[in-house]
Amino acid sequence: MTIEAGLGLSRFVHFAALTILFGVSLFPAYAFGRQSPAASYLKRARTASLIAVGIALLSAASWLAFTGAAMQDDIAGAIDPETLYVTLTETTFGMVWLARLPLLLLLAIVIAARDRKNTVWGLVEQSLAAAALTAIALTGHTQMQEGKTLLVHIGSDVLHLLAAGAWLGGISALLMLLGAARTGGEDDERAAATALQRFSPVGYLVVATLIATGVLNSLFMFGKVSAVIEAPYGRWLLLKLALFAVMLALAASNRFSLVPKLDAAATRAPALRNLTRTVTLEQFVGLGVLAVVAILGMTEPPV
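Structure (tokenized):
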């Protein structure tokens, strides 16, 4: 594996793990209301979140190692103590990496130990997951700015990351909920139907935030409109937008075609099966978006 490929893969896996952590932690806040989620869903959510924390920690270590290799332009830099020390202590990436490590460790403890029905501990989990995810905005292309422009760009990037985490991580939670509904009884099916209906208004807010912050972030990245097509960064961005459009189409199909069928008992079971298929497809397209984001972070913007 080349240094560039290892760095890109590490970034992608890390992004995916952090979006799952945030989206799954946020999901109960709007999806269940005063209802108690099914025990099978809670078990799946806890297991998935703990696995995501483990993957986030491993991918963070891999990201650090390949960053060290990139600094030396030699794979040996991945395990060179001096190079790694310089990376951690003298770069913005390293300082953010060190700050995120205890957040992830504390998050693992909270997920493993807390009562999933405790609202206060739920807020703690959401806050830790949000902090770990949005710390990404403190590195990368935002550091090209200065002064107030830097703060605006970081703020926009933070909102973009939170919205992406709510959507992509929320999809993971939806899949776990659909799995619990299909293996549970009628009460589980009704709970899943209610959660899916509550997911839609959140989806509108998320999409609006992604579009607004995406446009603002693009203004920082492009010196001229023609660069969107001419520069590699612009072409990757166009691919990201195409995948985003596919996700929007799938979400709209779910919302206006399948979700209404959950109201009637006769059509609920087949609708849940079809939703499982389309939401799974939406999840894979979302992973494609994250893969492109990982590449964009390593591509020089045409500013």
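The chain has a mean pLDDT of 86. The chain has ten helices and no strands.
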